[in-house]
Hints:
This protein has a single domain, classed as Heat Shock Protein 90 (2-Layer Sandwich). The protein has 3 helices and 6 strands. It has helices at residues 34-47, 52-72, 121-128; strands at residues 3-4, 25-30, 76-84, 87-93, 131-137, 140-148. The chain has a 6-stranded mixed beta sheet with strand order 1-5-6-4-3-2, covered by helices on one side. It starts with a strand and ends in a 6-residue tail after the last strand.
Amino acid sequence: MTVSPDTGTGGLGDRAVPAGAAPILDQPFDSGTLYALRAAVQAHASQAGMPADRAGDMVLALHELAANAIVHGAGRGRIRMWRVAGALSCEVLDGGAPDPDGRAGPGDPVKDPWPALDGHGLWLVRQVADRLELLSSPRGTRALVSFTLPPRDH
């Protein structure tokens, strides 16, 4: 697994998000819709050929990233998933950094993007995902995560 610094150098980069390709999942979320997000990730991972145990890992990892987006971002976010070269690549966007009142503030500096020390969410994602990259800017945090699919039987 590769975890790159927040500067965006190395790691998955734009290989995780194919230019012009439509995602197989594109879903907004907030604290009231995490259950729907988990169900959608499970369904799309299974449909793409991910074994049940790895699909469960994906659900767990993407739930943790979404929870970080809610807690440390603007309280909402968006997940997108693509099938790319034998893997499922996912992007979790946090909707922007919160302002002092807890609302999104697109111009606010990044003070503490998704801290790894508060809990074990990012640690857990690093344990189950094949690759993880976090990119932060004043507009928010973007997590790119990849899970390798098993080879298709011919």
